[in-house]
Each structure stands twice: as C-alpha cells, then as structure tokens.
Amino acid sequence: MKHISYWLLFLTLFPGAVLAQEDTDKKALHPCGTPAGIDPWLRKYLAAPTTYPESSDTLWAGLQIHLLGRDDGSGRFTPDRMLDAFYRLNEDFTPTGIRFYFKHPWNLINSTLWFQHDSIVQGRAMMFANNVPGALNVYFMVRAAGNCGYNLPYAGIAMAHACSGANDHTWAHEVGHALALPHPFLGWEGKTYNPDLPTPDTLLYDYTHFHATPDTVVPAPLDTALVEYVDGRNCAIAADRICDTGPDYLSYRWQCNAQGMSTVQQRDPAGAPFFSDGTLFMSYAADNCQRRFTPQQIQIMRTRLLTDRSSWLATEAPVTGLVGQTAQLIAPINQAPSPVNATVLQWAPVPHATHYLVQVSKVSGYGIRDFEAVVTDTFALATNLTPNWNYFWRVRAFNAASVGPYSASGRFLSVSASAVQSATQAGWRFYPTLLPQGVPLAVEAPAAWRDQPLVLSVFDAAGRLVYRAEHALLSAREWLLLPTEKWTAGTYYLVCTGSQGTVRQPLLLAKP
Ligand SMILES: [Zn+2]
Asked: What CATH number corresponds to the domain at position 146?
C-alpha cells in the first residue's frame, strides 16, 4: 500500500493554509542550463536511422517527480501547480504520441541546499542521491543553478518553479533534451550572434556535463559544431544535425513576431539571410512563441524511448482512461451554512479519476487557500475555517496520466455554531480516549440517537476520509471496530450524522 501511505505523507506536509509561492523572476533566469552537445546515442542513430525499431503505439513514459522544500518543509511546489505543469507537459507532447504518467507517488525531499542550489554539480549530487530507476526523474525547486531548467543525460531534469507554470514550455524543452534533442542553435550556447560580423563556418563548444556518464566532467572537453546554412546543404552534419529544424543562432531568450519568427535577421556563412523559428520547443524563443516539435524531432524522441530509454516505458497503459470531466459539487453549495470545524465537502465521482485535489479559499482566485488536500475519496473534511465567511471551494480530478479541469466553485457560509455539536456535549461517550491500533472503540450514545440509521465517517487531521459506514446503534454501549491498523498515529475526527443532526468527536490514535 505504498500509494496510500504516500498520500498520507503528502497531506501531512501540505496542511492548513497554503500561501502564494515565492518565485524568482522568470526573466532573471537563464532559459536552460543543459550544456551543449550531441548525445552519443543520437550520433549512432543519425548514422543509420532505418535500422532502429519503429512503433505507432502510444508510448507511456514513467515519471518520478521529486518536490524539493527547505529543511523545514516550506516553499515546496504546491499540488495545484504540479498538476498544471503536468497537464501542460502532456499537452505539449500530444502530437508526439508520447504520454507521461506518474509511475510512483511524488517524492518529497526537504533540503534547503538542493531547494535553492547554485551549481549543476550540487544538482547532480541531489539526483544521484535520490534517483529512482526505471523512470525519468524530474526535480522541482525554487532555484536550479540560475536556470529555468536543465537536463543531465545520465541523471535527470531540474526545473525552477518560476518556469513551470501552466503556460510554460521549459519542461517540454528539457524532456526533449532527455530524449536526445539538442538545441537547434547548437554551438552558439554562451555566445552572442553579432549581425555586424561575418558568420563563421564552425564553432567550438564546451560539453562539460553532456556525457552519457559523469566520469569525464573535468577538465572541460571541447567539441566543434558546423554552422548550419539556410539552403540545407549541411543540415545533417551541422548544429543539431536535424534537417527539419532550420538554422538558428539565437542563444538568449527572444521574443517572436506574430508568425512565431525572430525579429532579428541572421546571415549564414554564405551571407544568406534568415529568421529563427520560435515555434520550436527546443529554441530559446519566449514561451508564448513555442508550440511544437518537428516530425524528425518526434521520430528521434520516440526511437530513443523505444531503445536506450525503454526502461522508462510502461509495458501496458497505466490507466484505463483519461480524466476529462469536471467534478459536480454536491454539498455544501448555494451559500448553505456549514460549520467552521467540520465542513464535509462532497462531490460526485468523475470517470477514470483516482485522486482529487480539493481547495477552499476566501477568494475566488484561490491564491491563498484555507484548506487544500489531495484525497482518493469524494469527501473531505475542512476544519479550522474562519466564521462568517462566504467561502469558495472547488475540486480537480486526476489520475496517474491525466488531469481534468477544475470544477465550478461552490459557495458556503462558515458558521461557528451549533449545527455540529461536540459529541460529548451532546451526551455521547467514547473510550479509550487514546485508542491503541486494532482495539475497538466503545461508543455510548444517548437514547435519542439509538435505533436509527446513522452515517459514521472518520477523517484524518488533513481532512481525508479514512472510514465511512452506515450503522445503527441498538444498545446503550457498542464497540466499533475501526480499521485503525492501516492508519498512522495522530488525531482523527469521527463525524456521526442521523436524524438528530451531526456530532463530531476527535479521536487520538496511539502509536503502535
Ligand atoms: Zn536547452
């Protein structure tokens, strides 16, 4: 039950109010820290592409996500942003026939050093310490050595929060590198094209980190790239060696025109003028320009997955269907009053969903959340809300391979009140007060609550439903055997609803 224990861990680390993220300004970051180079696999492939396997199937590539936080767990990429980024990655890859999925639960790492690392050497150490085999390992942190992102061919991808938004393509770009694609401007990294100088035929570049193994990192080796001509005469041996990406010499973040082309005119070594294609994910054009991989780039990435990176591939589709629908909210809606300490949020199941992100906020934009949880059921319990607020709440369904849209917002009015009574004040008794695992809970209900159908629910401290049953109490004292062996020690809430109303009782589960 690794999956279950993970979500519990996840919830304990995202408790209560979730504040807006502190991000570095994206404009201050270098677009990509992936050092220049032609992957040795790509050299071999391009020399004899027809000898490699082909497939027209959807290729399901497994991801291992690592979310970095500081030593105290703060600063971490929030689940809503993670889902936005994941949605964007799969959208960007839709034409490739490659679909990414969460192979394992997200790994939460607390390390201030790695969370805001300054050098790729530190990032490499982080990856070596945490990589999981059989998946593409991707790390999200606030600072990735001054870059929007980078890929180490022998280790994994690092992503800066500021460049991992719902409309950013850095992740697609770095996955392109991980699947052997170079920049179309290979050779120009770290150099600035000057239209006033004649364009050279060759460029020397440093491929320090771009090796199949890390053992040749120091001293920095150099390699030579041929500069690509406009007429395509040397496209198979120049720059990225990919012929359906045209010449491009722009190795800084640049803005495109309405056609997605650069406004900077360049001239090839023969003097022929051209503009760079900013629609390519592998270029350094701004995010609003980028929208595609070329057919040859797609062919290369798919072949790479089928051969050298086949360990990332699922042998069968990891999910039975994609999540496409919004959740229908059931209660509370229409500004219904709901108790500050026990608001049970309920929605209808969404086809193919295995998980739901639930958010409660005082503001319609959800920039600050009073409650946020990832749950596997269609209920959540929000506690510690502020009285007399018209709250917004919404749900987003997802599974390992897809993310649905957010539901419409529901509204409820938080009331401090008597709608939910404390069970003990209502005359109930529960014992033992510190419940050992596997021991039945004794329940003594007042006569008015007996001999009628009751719904008994238990929620953990993060609001996740862990138990729900219909049960009638027929005698003055009954023993309730809850599946506590599966639960971690800590505080839970028993919520009981019947014709008398609703009562709530905290339960303390002892350490085993
Ligand atoms: Zn790059």
From this structure: 3.40.390.10
